[in-house]
Amino acid sequence: MDRMRRENYGDFVIEGTTEWGLHFPEASGESQSPININSRETKFDQKLKDNKLELCYVVCRESEILNTGATVQITFKHDSNNLAKGGHEKEETSKSYMKGGPFMAGDDYELAACTFHWGKEEERGSEHTVNFKAYPMELHLIHWNTTQFSTVEEAMGKPGGLAIIALFVQIGRENTGLRAFTECLESIQYKGRSVNVSIPFNTNCLLPDPMLRDFWTYQGSLTSPPCCENVTWILFRYPLTVSNSQIEEFRRLKNHMKGEQVGAGDEAGCLVDNFRPTQPLNKRTVWASFR
């Protein structure tokens, strides 16, 4: 995830997203994300039911949580074990990955990181919308194709290279799965700060539907520069919940380094409303796994 981190859009403010194309040509492409999903115009795809989506997530015992100045990014560090084979040491790593669903047979997509997008108010925050309704937060689980590519950098922008699961988030009960991370946000209040979290975490706890039945999928792009396309998006129909106090921890974060001068006003320097506006669907189709 190093390249994604270096090319973060922290120096390109959200208000200037219309100018992203001047610096990153793909941001002006025909297959950009996020989009509004008009549920009545989606098309049911029987293949999405027959070729079931599988999320093969394992417990991650160490993660890094970083304030990039534009989002909160969690990078998962999976366990590695040295196994002796024929007198030689071989490193074997447990990975979290997904397959099936809209993907080509035999392709595995490894989970690399998780990012968040949220609003200052409850009426906005998610990047995607459903029937023009926004949620207060959206969570992205970023995967890359380890079957066809050697690195995330190589996979970016290539057909079948990246896949992102988008989870809508609503205010409700506390999300105990995210508690270990939200409790650390105070430690990364300023841009560039990070902290390691050594608590076992399984991404399965974030899934609103363990059966993985109802989702939409379409071809889009990264929602931040370089906005490269050829990203397969999977958006689950039902949201997960976080408590009001949990989302407030995100809203207290800063988009600048400590001591850095910021403008005047109540919102100056606050890391809020870090979502890209929805982009035209153009000639793309949004497929549904349900009727």
What would you say this structure looks like, in words?
The protein has helices at 2-6, 20-23, 46-50, 152-155, 179-182, 244-251, and strands at residues 36-37, 43-44, 54-56, 62-67, 72-77, 80-85, 88-93, 97-99, 109-118, 129-130, 137-145, 162-171, 194-197, 215-221, 229-236, 240-242, 287-288. The chain has one domain: Alpha carbonic anhydrase (Carbonic Anhydrase II, Roll). It is mainly beta and 291 residues long. The protein contains six helices and 17 strands. The model is unreliable at 1-10 and 81-92 (pLDDT under 50). Strands 2, 3, 4, 5, 8, 9, 11, 12, 13, 14, 15, 16 and 17 form a 13-stranded mixed β-sheet that branches. A two-stranded parallel sheet has the order 1-10. The protein has a two-stranded antiparallel ribbon with strand order 6-7.
Distance between the termini: 36 Å
Backbone CA Rg: 19 Å
Per CATH, which architecture?
Roll
Total number of helical segments? 6
Structural class by secondary-structure content? mainly beta
- CATH domain topology: Carbonic Anhydrase II
Largest sheet entry: 13 strands, mixed
CATH fourth-tier homologous superfamily: Alpha carbonic anhydrase
Function: Reversible hydration of carbon dioxide.
Protein name: Carbonic anhydrase
Family: Belongs to the alpha-carbonic anhydrase family.
Cofactor: Zn(2+)
